[in-house]
Please model this.
Amino acid sequence: MAALAAQQDDLATLVSSLGADGWQTPSRCPGWSVADVVLHLAQTNEMALGSVRGRYESVVAALTGGLGPAASVDDGAGMMVEAGRGVPVAEVFARWQESATALRVELLACDPGTRLTWVAGELSARTLATTRLAETWIHTGDVALPLGADLAEDDRLWHIARLAWRTLPYAFARAGRALAGPVAFELAAANGDIWHFSPDDEPATVVEGSAVELCTLAGQRVAPADTGLVARGPDAAAVLSLVRTFA
Model:
């Protein structure tokens, strides 16, 4: 939760001083402006709030009402952003800030092990908080890059990298595949530390390299070949291709 708060603060600092032109700067997300990215984060925060409050389905219904069926999660997100465009950027910013603050309050009051409804099924409150951190971090990068700003590469990435490691079975199942065996990550943090994410059993596949590159890859903002990540084992190529931190 401290990492999530820090990431939200970074994004708020980045966009709070933007003028009208700055908010319309094209982001790293194709077809989305900076304002669109912040709107998307507000909408998904509201979905997470609905989950914590036991009203996930009704919140999603309200956000998607009249939009028709979506072919995928990404298409659904795009449709919600398109439907929500056109309001003043001050309202978009205020909506995101309100949702970010409320979500932190609600998650802190929630038992970390509580099972909550989310896009791909049920997950723990702790994991939901981590997915919000991962999404906020990658979307902060989507805004920071075109604005020429830096993206945090501190210990908050440990949580994102661990999420990517823990959810590999989901990533493989989503692609209709199965892991050949356990996977380990050996990642170099920006401060020189090595983060070890290791299974109880001997790993069949090992991924080594930069923590920030792994997190960026898991956010699907870079291709495996464009990183220095090295994987060995029967699932080496598949892990680098399929790893993800979102539904």
